[in-house]
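Because showing beats explaining, we think one record worth quoting, sequence and backbone structure tokens together, and here it is:
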Amino acid sequence: MIDYKAAIEKGFDIIDKRGDRVPFIFNNVQNLYWQTLIKDWGLSLEGTREIILKARKEGFSSLIDAIFTIDFLLRPNIGSQIISHKDKETQILFDRVHFFVNSFCEKRGINRKELLDTDRTNFLRNKANGSYIYIGTAGAKTLGRGPTLQNIHWSEIGHFPNTEIINAEKLVVGAEEQVATGVGRIFRESTGNMQGDFFYSECERARKGEGHFKFRFFPWYKFDEYRTNVEIFEPTQEEKVVMEQYGLDKTQMFWYRQKMDGYKTKTLGLREYPTTPEEAFLAGGAGFFDPDILKACLDRIREPIKTGGLAMDGSWI
């Protein structure tokens, strides 16, 4: 059985946010998610079905694609697809997977050309074990009706095209038929987008425990890097409520205030850096209620003092 965390951290480098090449050491959110994964699916991750609603740039696509790349390098006959929502983002995924392979080869003294049978920008095949990775854009004609797969990663699935010609639901559900039930891994990860679309509906289903996918939500404040040191900071009353409710300190709240100031509308910023799952879907769609007013109402919701029901004799159960 492969220890994926050890294999990634020892075998791969990554380009950090400063542009430096560094060993791929899991950040705190990746570590938190990894512990959740192995608790629910075991170290093999066999049969994994995950829906991840998250804030921007917490590192989920890097982690998932690193797992798939380890499979490509070390396991025989594993087919993987990594699909993004637009060509620009797909290019980033191309570059990342190629960089993982290059760093792995360099660390082990392997000649990349001898390792790979097929070496194209969007398709890699391992000569030694027959495994392959395809990286594409949602809506590509090659998706959905290909050979049997073991791994699928839908990156930013909440932003997939949803038109009469290209329907996100049909695309995703059709392609996932290539992965047998209880086999391999399927990850659907994204920031939020529109209420009522496929990703929103699937998040809601998973939150209710319906279907085979487990719902995960990672708000902005879970990421240790989302902080700004500040000497003097006076939070507003609204910010004080948020800080108390979620246990935030002033470095987190100041970072958040600065980040929100960069967006034209508050709800657009909430979509990118949500505090709750509901905030992630306030910016999109054509809702009946004004999203800022809806957000203000959601902020006033508090946990009930007590939950349960009344028995026929009037006692609390």
